[in-house]
Amino acid sequence: MRYCINPWCRKRENEDSAEFCTNCDSPLLINERFRVIKPLYDLQRHHETDIYEVLDLTGSWISPPNSIKILKVLKAYDPTGIFISLLQTEANALRTFNHPAIPRCDLDDFFSVYLEREQEDLHCLAIEKIEGITLDEFIQRHGRITQTLAISWLRQLAEILHYVHTHNFIHRDIKPSNIIVRPNQSLALIDFGGARQTTSTYYAKIGGRSLDLVTRVHTIGYTAPEQLNGKAIPQSDFFSLGKTLINALTGKEFRELPSDPETGELLWQQEAKHCDPPLLRFIEDLASQGMARRPKTSQEILNFLNDALPRQLKRYELFRSKKIRLGALFSGALILLAGFHFGRLQIADNMLNIGVRQLTSNQLTEAQTSLKRSIALNPTAEAYTSLGLLCKITQQYQCALESYNKAIQLNPNIYAAYYNLGSYHEELGDYQQAISAYQKAIEVSQGKAPEPLNNLARLLILQGKDSEAKALIEKALKTTSDDFALAILHKNMGWILFNQQKYSESEVALNQSISLEPNLASSHCLLAQVQEAQKQPAKTEWRQCLTIQSGDSASSEVIQWRSNLINRALSSI
Predict the structure, then answer these.
(1) Of the candidates 328, 346, 378, which is a domain's last residue?
(2) Residue among 417, 418, 499, 421 nearest 458 (CA)
(3) Which has more pLDDT, 154 or 553?
């Protein structure tokens, strides 16, 4: 049987002898190279891609003729190019990697096929097929895994992640269905469609406002909280890794496990009593809602697995002996006293995480209660920074100012507090104080965070200091690869070029901003003015300027540009 890859074809099965689909006349030899062996998923499923097992008749630089490969065919309506971009990102990532546990991809393996009848291009990606079953399927067949296997697999996955992260990528979609268990029980990591380059990534602080507000890749239960908020970092992969191990060690879906009603953390360890506490505690840290508990790097995970964990497991074996347990009775009171102190810190950390989640969910009253409880138990700079942001949102300005100052007293090097303090002063119209706070945020972050660079540049533009602003924007552009951050920075660059009457260059920068983030009112307002300056029609961009409601809609410049347009319209009546 030969299959047609045209997603609009109503009869996709053809006889083995057919060269063209008998229903839609599409070629059954894909790109003059691939012949479909079988679809790997139901072709009627609601998903942006169809996935096939194919025979690569000609082969490539990395694979001989008649190799078996996986072919992904993008079938989704994609006017913004998001899905094409994700497929291109996966191709770029796999071309970069050369690791035995990651599928390979050649230069010619990302291509498009033109469908004559539909007059549409199908974008396709062919990748190496790694033999085996998914970890998801393995758990369904065999149930929960042993401690020995868990440690071995955790080490293998950490080594793969170490390779990925040191090549400046994060995976962003680690879960059992994206892990292959080979016949020899070694693991491979697949599906890099959500991978993202992280060169000069800004590591967002709790309570700070990141420009990385949009993430398009998530899986319920496996995606880290900060990634859901658009702040994916390498530690987000560790959260997903921890959740994957929880699924493997319990053999249960997350919906089958109880969770803490206050923190939302899974209560899973009762289902993994066959494992020793040192391993369970480490996996609990990996899967923690709060980033502070997770390892900082993949090397830290490997160091723990290769050094600390074996020692801790050996000590635990000794602890379980009768002699040690009898001795422990005499030190129980001391342990309880120490445990009370650390328990209090843990509760404070949990309340902080709850408060941050409530704040991002706009549960402002509940968030304020949670953050104040966290501060009462353990006053930290992070908790005060989050409370300051909440107070600013609710226009409790004295509370906001006091909270930011408290945060800075506790930790003079906390970037988020200075950044939010600048935003506080800017909102009150005190631009000089805002500039000072942004400058301090730039100093503390060593110029590696795009937000204060961008905000300071914007204030300098408003003061007519375009040259200083341009230098800041050029520096910020080197610190981030995030689309949303780049959109704002290109918008501000376009603004400067407009002020300098470099209209052609300004138009390029603003169009680049809009291509990265279409829903930014200021970019459309500026582009409309650039088009008018060049005697071009600007009606469409002015309409976008007036109607889009985005984070910058309330900025002083957008309000002024909209007001100018309305006044012009009224004066012409």
Answers:
(1) 328
(2) 499
(3) 154
What span, in angstroms and rounded, lies between the C-alpha atoms of 125 and 121? 13
Confidence band, pLDDT 50/70/90 cuts, at residue 302: very high
* Residue range 172-195: mean pLDDT, rounded: 91
- The domain that holds 67 is classified in CATH as 3.30.200.20
CA atoms in the 13 A half-sphere facing the CB of 365: 0
Assign residue 307 the CATH number of its domain: 1.10.510.10
Amino acid at position 128, single letter? E
Residues 82-125 pLDDT 10s: 788 888 888 988 988 989 999 999 889 999 999 988 888 899 99
CA 511 – CA 570 distance, rounded (Å)? 29
Angle, helix 450-462 to helix 431-444, in steps of 10 degrees: 150
Q: Within this chain, do residues 214 and 66 fall inside the same structural domain, yes or no? A: no
The candidate with the shortest Cα–Cα distance to 123, out of 175, 160, 86, is 86
Instruction: Classify residue 463: in a domain, yes or no.
Output: no
Helix (H) or strand (E) run with residue 52 in it? strand 49-56
Contact 146, 271 (CB under 8 A): no
Same structural domain, 257 and 221? yes
State the Cα angle at 390 between 386 and 392, rounded to 5°.
115
> Is the same domain home to 83 and 186?
no
**Does residue 490 sit in the same domain as residue 567?**
yes
- Residue 329 tokens, joined: 């009775």
* Number of helices and strands in the chain (H, E): 22, 13
The residues, any chain, with a CB within 8 Å of residue 121's CB and separated by 6 or more, are 112, 113, 114, 115
Closest by CA to 451, choosing from 413, 480, 429, is 480
Give the amino acid at 179: I
Instruction: Tell whether 301 is covered by a domain.
Output: yes
Domain CATH number, residue 570? 1.25.40.10
How many structural domains comprise the chain?
3
**How far is Cα 113 from Cα 8, in angstroms, rounded to an integer?**
14
Distance between CA atoms of 497 and 504, rounded to whole angstroms?
9
Contact 512, 483 (CB under 8 A): no
Q: Are residues 292 and 157 in the same domain?
A: yes
Q: Is 530 helix (H, G, I), strand (E, B) or coil?
A: helix
Residues 288 and 195 reside in one and the same domain? yes
Assigned token pair, 334: 């001391």
Is residue 468 a part of any domain in this protein?
A: no
Same structural domain for residues 164 and 275?
yes
The answer to whether the pTM exceeds 0.90 is no
Distances (CA, A) of 120 to 2, 24, 71, 184: 21, 13, 18, 43
Q: Report how far apart the first and last C-alpha atoms of the chain are (Å, whole number).
A: 70
Structural domain harbouring 119: 2-128
More confident call, 86 vs 294: 294
The residue out of 98, 128, 158 marking a domain boundary is 128
Residue 187's SS3 state is: strand
Q: What does residue 170 show for φ and ψ, rounded to 5 degrees?
A: -120, 145
> Which contacts of 22-25 are long-range, i.e. CB under 8 A and separated by 24 or more positions?
24/115, 24/117, 25/116, 25/117
